[in-house]
């Protein structure tokens, strides 16, 4: 990705916008090419919290590598309408048709529904309006009580802070788990993965501890999870003995360094498979010498 275009709607929730925007801004500070742009149908947008934002009515030229995000807005019970004009909805559709990714946060899913992008796709939104969204767009499969869902370059997330999880997921997808972990740690948040539950992503599921040595080893594994990582090298990274590292790592994370690396490989492979890769190519891409180990890991209960 390069450009991240946020489509602002009157009454939008500040955190729906600010959370995701902060992720991409922080990623840009770490050298990743994200350039946020804020467009709207009016140059001034008043948020639900009373802050007035300035936007441009002129859309930038988009490429398939760019991302368009529709943050959510305040809705009355039983409604979701963001009052976007058809011209704006057509831009969402055209970008997706051209190969681009379109995302929504909270009630922003209604805009994707009006644009026809939810038809035949899995999606989600804030729990208060899940039933309304499902009723308005019966061709969509609304998944309840998940943080975000990816389906065919359409990414939808639940309300408010889950926009952060969505943005971190996109950073991890394009730049690897270490990049997303670095951004998340800077923002002092956790990242989670999509699916039919609220399960946390492996890359940050085991980060709620205070061991600097273990965090350094996790950083190393997340950066080089495709490579062979001997315990001696990881112990050298931590500055402690192999035996001490094993003990501290298991105490802090409940896992061994090897199992942690396998979790990262498995999650990345699952993402590749969900986007059309074969098991064999996914296994090779994440560092397995063949697909047998990946098949064994996929068959285990999580």
From TrEMBL:
Entries under Pfam families matching the protein: DJ-1_PfpI, HTH_18
Gene3D superfamilies: 3.40.50.880, Homeodomain-like (1.10.10.60)
Domain of life of the native organism: Bacteria
SUPFAM superfamilies for this protein: Class I glutamine amidotransferase-like (SSF52317), Homeodomain-like (SSF46689)
The HTH araC/xylS-type domain, residue ranges: 215-302
Keyword field: Transcription, Transcription regulation
GO molecular function: DNA-binding transcription factor activity; sequence-specific DNA binding
Protein name (record): Transcriptional regulator
Species whose genome carries this gene: Winogradskya consettensis
Taxonomic classification: Bacteria, Bacillati, Actinomycetota, Actinomycetes, Micromonosporales
């Amino acid at each position: 990705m390069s450009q991240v275009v946020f489509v602002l709607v009157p009454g939008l929730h500040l955190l729906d916008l600010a959370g995701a925007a902060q992720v991409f801004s922080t990623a840009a500070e770490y050298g990743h090419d994200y350039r946020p742009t804020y467009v709207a149908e009016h140059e001034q947008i008043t948020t639900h919290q009373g802050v007035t934002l300035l936007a441009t009515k002129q859309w930038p030229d988009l490429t398939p590598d760019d991302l368009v995000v529709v943050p959510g807005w305040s809705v009355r019970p039983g409604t979701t309408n963001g009052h976007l004009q058809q011209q704006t909805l057509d831009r969402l559709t055209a970008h997706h048709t051209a190969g681009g990714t379109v995302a929504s946060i909270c009630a922003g899913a209604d805009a994707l529904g009006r644009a026809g992008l939810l038809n035949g796709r899995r999606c989600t939104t804030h729990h208060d309006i899940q039933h309304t969204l499902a009723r308005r767009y019966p061709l969509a499969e609304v998944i309840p009580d998940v943080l975000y869902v990816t389906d065919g370059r359409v990414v939808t997330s639940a309300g408010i802070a889950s926009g952060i999880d969505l943005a971190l997921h996109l950073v991890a997808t394009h730049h690897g788990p270490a990049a997303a972990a670095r951004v998340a740690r800077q923002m002092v948040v956790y990242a989670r993965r999509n699916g039919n539950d609220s399960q946390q992503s492996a890359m940050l599921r085991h980060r709620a501890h205070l061991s600097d040595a273990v965090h350094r080893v996790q950083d190393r594994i997340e950066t080089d999870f495709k490579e062979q990582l001997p315990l001696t090298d990881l112990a050298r990274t931590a500055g402690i003995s192999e035996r001490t590292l094993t003990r501290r790592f298991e105490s802090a994370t409940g896992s061994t360094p090897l199992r942690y690396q396998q979790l990262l490989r498995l999650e990345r492979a699952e993402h590749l498979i969900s986007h059309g890769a074969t098991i064999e190519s996914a296994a090779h891409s994440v560092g397995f010498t063949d697909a047998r180990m990946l098949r064994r890991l996929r068959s285990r209960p999580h």
